[in-house]
């Protein structure tokens, strides 16, 4: 079972059970690969992102998820990258012109609000020089919050894709911590605006 078969299944599930709206697909770079990032308010979010982005994404997933038997096959089919040593693998893929996706909060929000962002996306952007495409997912928390066992069917889920963010490639062995924090804040601000703008 390969990536495109899994994606087709996700498309059928997400678009069949929910009212999905996508905005900003024109912002997806055509001339370059990229790092795609989004907020993470629901267990539905990874499925939503794979379903709405019509290109292959090598997603970073929590290592603990690979220990869940019924998820293992799906994660392997999606060629997901387990956290822990993900930076090296993700950077290698980016340098091979592959697209990498991650949720900078490094976990699902408990209340639907943005949590503190980890620096992973900024590190990849500064090391690779590839653009970051911010996405804001709204409605997924209402459709299926973290504590829920079943989704609220036919809920509205909106994905807003923002303009790419560009960062100068860093060649120094160590990235300045202030630059890293500033870059992470820039990514978070872009996603925050997409999540809450009307």
Form type: globular
Oligomeric state of shown chains: single chain
Helix and strand content put the structural class at alpha/beta
Secondary-structure arrangement, i.e. CATH architecture: 3-Layer(aba) Sandwich
Number of domains: 1
Contiguous runs where pLDDT drops below 50 for at least 5 residues: none
Order of H and E elements? HEEHEHEHEHEHEH
Helix fraction, binned, reads 25-40%
Write up what this structure looks like.
The chain has 198 residues and is α/β, with parallel strands linked by helices. It has a single domain, classed as Glycerol-3-phosphate (1)-acyltransferase (3-Layer(aba) Sandwich), CATH 3.40.1130.10. The protein has seven helices and seven strands; from the N terminus they run αββαβαβαβαβαβα. The protein has a seven-stranded mixed β-sheet, with helices on both faces. Strand 3, helix 3 and strand 4 form a beta-alpha-beta unit. Helix 4 runs parallel beside helix 5. The longest helix has 20 residues. The chain is globular. The mean pLDDT is 95.
């Amino acid at each position: 079972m390969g990536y495109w078969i899994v994606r087709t299944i996700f498309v059928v599930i997400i678009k069949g059970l929910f009212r999905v709206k996508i905005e900003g697909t024109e912002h997806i770079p055509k001339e370059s690969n990229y790092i795609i990032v989004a907020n993470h308010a629901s267990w539905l979010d990874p499925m939503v992102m794979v379903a709405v982005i019509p290109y292959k994404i090598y997603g970073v997933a929590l290592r603990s998820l690979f220990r869940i038997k019924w998820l293992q096959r799906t994660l392997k089919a999606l060629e997901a990258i387990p956290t822990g040593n993900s930076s090296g693998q993700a950077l290698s893929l980016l340098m091979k012109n592959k697209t990498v996706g991650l949720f900078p909060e490094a976990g699902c929000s408990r209340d639907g609000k943005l949590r503190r962002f980890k620096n992973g996306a900024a590190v990849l952007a500064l090391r690779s020089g590839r653009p970051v495409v911010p996405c804001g997912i709204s409605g997924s928390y209402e459709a299926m919050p973290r504590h829920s066992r079943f989704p609220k069917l036919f809920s509205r889920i909106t994905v807003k894709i923002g303009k790419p963010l560009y960062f100068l490639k860093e060649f120094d062995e160590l990235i300045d911590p202030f630059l890293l924090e500033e870059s992470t804040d820039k990514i978070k601000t872009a996603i925050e605006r997409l999540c809450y703008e009307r």
